[in-house]
Amino acid sequence: MNKLEKITRPNILSLVPYSSARNEFKGNADIFLDANENPFGELNRYPDPMQVDLKRALAAELNVSSNNVFIGNGSDEVIDLLFRIFCTPGVDNVITLNPSYGMYSVSAAINDVLIQRIPLDSDYNVQVDKLLNAVNPNTKIIFLCSPNNPTGNIIPLEDIELICSRFNGIVVVDEAYIDFSDSPSAVGLLGKNWNLVVSQTFSKARGLAAARVGYAIGSEELINLMNKVKPPYNVSKLNQKVALEALLNKEKYNQEVELIKTQRRQVKDELAQLPIVNKIFPSEANFILVKFEDGPKVYNWLLEKNIVVRNRDNEIKNTIRITIGSKEENEKLINELKNYCYEKESTIY
Ligand SMILES: *Cc1c(COP(=O)(O)O)cnc(C)c1O
């Protein structure tokens, strides 16, 4: 057994995947009487189960082979599949950082898998030794998020490589926000690290949160496992189409990412001038984590003005995660925060 097989659940290794009609058929045909579809309509046929066109375009974009790409119903499906492939419920455990993206804990709970959350240090860097010390023989996956949600900082590639080399399980690097960062993606480390999986999404920079398309990049062997376990038609024809169009429209993508990065600088500068702001954490994502004098109060104030931000007070006291919106939206936000400051001053004196 090789390293990957050793950590794969035996039932998954021996799984004979569902073979769909469209999977079995190869070649040219005019008449399809193989999948019990309705012969009439526009969306009457099952979609390509292997998303060949979208994968080819993604692979070209990422400079990998199509065999290294898995496409899922959002990155949330990627996360869940990894749990189901590697973690035996009630037995195995995973490790993540604290604070980080909430879905790792939720997916762990759904799969009855224990999750150990290793705190980031005061600058939100990974405490690599602490993280590696938490590994035990039943630890199957380490989830890293870079740039991290909600802190916004990147995990250095050296840390990721060190963790990959010292850990005999799967290392997931969730790069949902990598488009907004000036640092390179961990995709470049894939050739040297058998256990690395990078996940990205169409939900953020590509502007398709409503479509639900995420993807994982990893070794061909690991991608094969994911293909085996996924529901046969997990990405709809409509979603494959819009994702491919978004991928090919590079001009729109580049323009929007640049606009958001410019606005991120603008919002940061404006926030820095407000007396109620205690700290603005450096961000390489399309959001900024901000520490206020009284976070929950600011949160409620904005809510009263019909502006929803993300209250992170539970994770880090008095913090709010603010998404970078359009110029107009950001200006409204800053204006309401200024109003809050005036109001506050006039109640004190
Ligand atoms: C938003 C986000 C995602 C995206 O999830 P999808 O299911 O692809 O929409 C993934 N990871 C993190 C850390 C996120 O913040």
TrEMBL record:
| EC code(s) of this entry | 2.6.1.9
Which keywords fit this entry according to its UniProt record? Answer: Amino-acid biosynthesis, Aminotransferase, Histidine biosynthesis, Pyridoxal phosphate, Transferase
Gene Ontology biological process: L-histidine biosynthetic process
Domain Aminotransferase class I/classII large: from-to ranges: 38-336
| The protein's name | Histidinol-phosphate aminotransferase
- Source organism of the structure: Parvicella tangerina
Q: Which reaction does it catalyse?
A: L-histidinol phosphate + 2-oxoglutarate = 3-(imidazol-4-yl)-2-oxopropyl phosphate + L-glutamate
Pfam families per UniProt? Aminotran_1_2 (PF00155)
Using the record's annotations, give every residue carrying the modification N6-(pyridoxal phosphate)lysine: 204
Protein family according to the UniProt entry: Belongs to the class-II pyridoxal-phosphate-dependent aminotransferase family. Histidinol-phosphate aminotransferase subfamily.
Cofactor dependency: pyridoxal 5'-phosphate
Q: Which SUPFAM superfamilies match?
A: PLP-dependent transferases (SSF53383)
- Organism classification: Bacteria, Pseudomonadati, Bacteroidota, Flavobacteriia, Flavobacteriales
The GO terms describing molecular function are:
histidinol-phosphate transaminase activity; pyridoxal phosphate binding
Which pathway does it take part in? Amino-acid biosynthesis; L-histidine biosynthesis; L-histidine from 5-phospho-alpha-D-ribose 1-diphosphate: step 7/9; Lipid metabolism
Q: Which InterPro entries match?
A: Aminotrans_II_pyridoxalP_BS (IPR001917), Aminotransferase_I/II_large (IPR004839), HisP_aminotrans (IPR005861), PyrdxlP-dep_Trfase (IPR015424), PyrdxlP-dep_Trfase_major (IPR015421), PyrdxlP-dep_Trfase_small (IPR015422)
